[in-house]
Amino acid sequence: MFDDRLEIVSPGALPNIVTLDNMRTTRYSRNPRIARTLVEFGWVRELNEGVKRIYTEMQDSLPNDPVYTEPGGTKVQLTLENNIVARTVRRSEALEDRLSAEAIASLGDYELAAVRLAFTNGKVAARGLAEHIGRDRRTASRVLGKLIGEGGLLEWHGSSPNDPRQFYAIR
């Protein structure tokens, strides 16, 4: 793991029918038994989805496509570039697409942090917000409370105010 990229190395060369040029379209499992087990446990959605899924999942969050190489013909290396500036801009644009610019501009720092956490993670809890903003849970709960209600940006999910699994999500 590096500041500007993540490199994943798999020992062993590509199978004979798979090349760096055709790996997006050619399906081949290096270990079919492990692949079948992963599908049966529900850890992957379908057989041979790995490369295709990497490309589709990374398309929205990375500026460049994943890069596969075969250094020395003895291993396969996947490089995922990380551009924090571009990713931050894309997240901000996506948030503005979901909420109005006026609504975002009217938020204080803690409220904006709560909305961004809820948007990025799909939900936010008081404990997570407290850790993120460096304040206590009571402060985080007050911030989240301001963001719910009539016309609020967040909605509360839980069975009671004391529910340890309660969380807030973007409306």
Strand content: 5-15%
CATH fold node name of the largest domain: Arc Repressor Mutant, subunit A
| Largest beta-sheet details | 3 strands, antiparallel
Mean pLDDT: 83
Largest beta sheet: strand ordering: 1-3-2
By DSSP (H or I, 4+ residues per run), the number of helices equals 7
Shape: elongated
CATH architecture of the largest domain, please?
Orthogonal Bundle
Give the proportion of residues in helices.
Answer: 40-55%
First-last Cα distance: 35 Å
- Rg calc: 21 Å
Low-confidence stretches: none
What is the β-strand count?
Answer: 5
CATH class category label of the largest domain:
Mainly Alpha
Give me the CATH superfamily of the largest domain.
Winged helix-like DNA-binding domain superfamily/Winged helix DNA-binding domain
Number of structural units classed as domains: 2
> How do the helices and strands follow one another from N- to C-terminus?
EHHEEHHHHHEE
Structural class: alpha+beta
Describe the structure.
This is ATP-dependent DNA helicase RecG C-terminal domain-containing protein. Pfam families: HATPase_c_4. It comes from Collinsella acetigenes. Helix content is 41%, strand content 15%. It is of the alpha+beta class. The chain folds into two domains: 5-81, Heat Shock Protein 90 (2-Layer Sandwich); 85-170, Arc Repressor Mutant, subunit A (Orthogonal Bundle). The strands form two sheets. It has a three-stranded antiparallel beta sheet, with no helix packed on it. A two-stranded antiparallel sheet has the order 4-5. A hairpin with a 5-residue loop joins strand 2 (67-69) and strand 3 (75-81). The longest helix is centred in the middle third of the chain and has 15 residues, at 84-98. The chain starts with a strand and ends with a strand. The model has no long low-confidence stretch (mean pLDDT 83).
